[in-house]
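Extended Data, record MFS transporter
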Amino acid sequence: MPTPPDPAPSPIPAGPRGPAGPRGPAASGASAGPEAGTGTETGAGAGKAAGTEARAGSGPGTEAGAGAETSAGTGTETGAGTAPASGARSGYRAVFAVPEFRAVFAAHLMSMLGVVVSEIALSVLVYRISGSPLLSALTFALGLLPYLVGGTLLAQAADRFPARRVLVVCDLLCAGCAAVMVVPGTPVAVLLGLRCLSAAIAPVFGGTRAATLGDILGEGDLFVLGRSVIRIVSQGAQLAGFAVGGLLLTVVAPRAVLAVTVATFLGSALVLRFGTRRRPARAAAGAGHGGRLVGSSLAGARALLADRRVRALLLLSWVPPMFVVAPEALATPYADTLGLGPAGLGLLMIGMPVGAITSEVLVGSLLGPAARARLTLPVAALATLPALGYAVRPSLAPALLLLVLTGAGIAYTLGLDQWFLAAVPEQARGTALTLMTAGLMTTQGLGMALAGAAAELWPVHRVVAGAGVLGTVCGLLVVAEVRRTAPPPAPAGPSNNRDSTARHMTGG
């Protein structure tokens, strides 16, 4: 749960502005009350002050919120213990200084651990009931394939309904699915169907949460770092969740482990309900594309894909990961070709998550927005290059190093997030981020399937190396398209922040 903001915040100078415009973060304190006679509003739950309420540009009053924004006039909007003062906090510390983000972080940590633990438990449960390796493996595959359905048919929900309501309802639906799985005697077909339903809900939840980060943290660097934290949690949950799930299954039955998942989803729903602000829907029902959710979602996806800039950035999000997953997808057969035991396989499986977490933390902490933007396209183009090392059939240590380097390529997404937010209209932000999430998971699933099919015909090390070649070629083509669609650099002037990411969108 978020803590109340500092009681005596100091004014915050206007921070870096992203290319989307000068929007600052939304006010996000947790429980601040009214301040009599000051014309000041503090935090998320604040009532109006007894005096005249003043907003930026309207007069000499102040509004204390989560961001730092000044506009024409003498009014100033300042952060109430949320967005930090320039120079006081930087990097990830600044993100965690925002109380609402801490609530989102806690909810994501709970739900991700629950998801990973449930995947193991459900796989074991299905295998014990059916005795079928295929059905057991489907519990993992069905966690990816329905993303495309949910992400395209339900994407508009992220913009049509209030974000907090969407997030809480998604958590409750997933808790309900897990609760039915816990019931003894539930048939395998029902278990797999519930797995599909949860997976179809996931992109709507992910897209809505990503769009909400823009409301909580603003459209500048804090949004980029906030998204980075979410990815770090996801990667870390894979490492911790599989270990915790395995330990739990040694002492309790799979259905008992699934009951833990129910608790994590309910806990996430409670934290989001009481730890985040209620915000209105971005788009009115039926606005622009008709009144039906499915129809408007499809129309919204078509409109986004018709925009050349948005389409290029979506491809930059989808294409490199499609090839990056090849060595991870084939880790088990590759370990077998090297004669490695379970310990060796385990090391190969953690290689990419370790590389991803390390690169996210280092790039997010040590580099500023301009430097991260300059790295985006080169890193994206070369993300699959380490896979070429598999051509020499490396032993365990070199293969592990290649996997860590491959995972480190995820760092290019820090710059991509800022560009994508700038390219998408605010009223379509939730739809766009849901589509991005759905496409990412779908292309990764497709990449895994294609790598597995190719490994039926050719040696595993050659398949991984081939994926590296194809990924590099495709990555270079996508990068070229992103360069062609980049907007011109902002003209130099005193009003443009020197660290603006927009100035480096065409840089290499």
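Summary. The chain has 19 helices and three strands.
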